[in-house]
Structure to design on (230 residues):
C-alpha cells in the first residue's frame, strides 16, 4: 500500500481522472490511497490567500510559504507509523527529470506528498520544506496538477496487483527502466480497408508472422521491431 497526498489549490481537477480505470480499481482494492488536500484550507487569513506578488517586482504571483508549511506540518502530524518511508516532492519545471528509473525509486516509499504549484512558482523558501523537486519534462505547464497525476499513475503501476495482467509490467515498454523497447502490436481485424483521399482503397494487413502461431519466430520478429523503433 502506498499513500499519495496531493496538495493543490485546484482539488477538483483530480476528481474525474482518479475515478477511472486502473487508478480507480487500485484504490478500491486498497493497493493505493489518494488524498487530495486543498491548500486554501491551510491559509493564515480569512481571505484564504495562497499567493502574492514577488518582492523586488516582476510578473505574476508567487505561492506563499506559510500555508504550504502549515499543510505539510498537518500531514506530518497525522503520520502514525514513525518508521513509514515518506517523501515530500515539489512538482516544478526546475526539478529533476522524471524517468522510469525515478518511478521505480519512488515506488519504494510508503507515502508520497506531492506539492502542486501554480502561477509563477513557489517562494524560494519552500525549497527547504521539500525532499526533492521533480519535472515531468522540459516544458512549462500552468501548474503541478497534471505532473502530480503523472507521478501518481506511473508509481501506482509499480505496486503489485495494480496492473491487471501479471506479465504486463515485465514485458512492457521499458526494460529495466531504461530504454523504449516496444514492438508494434496488432489486434482484430486481420485486414483493415481504408479509403485514401483520392478514394483509392488500401488494405492494411497484420504481419503474417503474428498469425503463424510460431512463438519462436514471433519473439524474433518482435525483438527486431523493438530495435527498429529505437
Ligand atoms: N509545473 C509546471 N510545469 C511543470 C513540469 N513540466 N513538470 C513538473 N511540474 C510542473
Amino acid at each position: 500500500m502506498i499513500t499519495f497526498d496531493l496538495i493543490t489549490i485546484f482539488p477538483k481537477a483530480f476528481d474525474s481522472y482518479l475515478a477511472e480505470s486502473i487508478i480507480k480499481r487500485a484504490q478500491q482494492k486498497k493497493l493505493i490511497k489518494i488524498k487530495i488536500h486543498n491548500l486554501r484550507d491551510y491559509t493564515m487569513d480569512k481571505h484564504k490567500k495562497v499567493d502574492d506578488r514577488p518582492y523586488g517586482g516582476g510578473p505574476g504571483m508567487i505561492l506563499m510559504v506559510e500555508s504550504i508549511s502549515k499543510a505539510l506540518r498537518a500531514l506530518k502530524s497525522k503520520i502514525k507509523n514513525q518508521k513509514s518511508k515518506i517523501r515530500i516532492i515539489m512538482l516544478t519545471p526546475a526539478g529533476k527529470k522524471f524517468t522510469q528509473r525515478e518511478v521505480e525509486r519512488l515506488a519504494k516509499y510508503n507515502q508520497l506528498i506531492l506539492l502542486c504549484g501554480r502561477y509563477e512558482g513557489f517562494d524560494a523558501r519552500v525549497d527547504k520544506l521539500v525532499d526533492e523537486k521533480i519535472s515531468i519534462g522540459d516544458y512549462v505547464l500552468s501548474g503541478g496538477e497534471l505532473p502530480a497525476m503523472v507521478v501518481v499513475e506511473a508509481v501506482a503501476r509499480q505496486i503489485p496487483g495494480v496492473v491487471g495482467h501479471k506479465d504486463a509490467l515485465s514485458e512492457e515498454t521499458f526494460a529495466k527502466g531504461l530504454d523504449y523497447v516496444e514492438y508494434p502490436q496488432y489486434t482484430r481485424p486481420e485486414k483493415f480497408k481504408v479509403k485514401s483521399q483520392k478514394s483509392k482503397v488500401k488494405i492494411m494487413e497484420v504481419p503474417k508472422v503474428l498469425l503463424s502461431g510460431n512463438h519462436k519466430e514471433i519473439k524474433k520478429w518482435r525483438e527486431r521491431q523493438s530495435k527498429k523503433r529505437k
User: Anything to note?
Assistant: The domain at 2-228 is CATH 3.40.1280.10 (Alpha/beta knot).
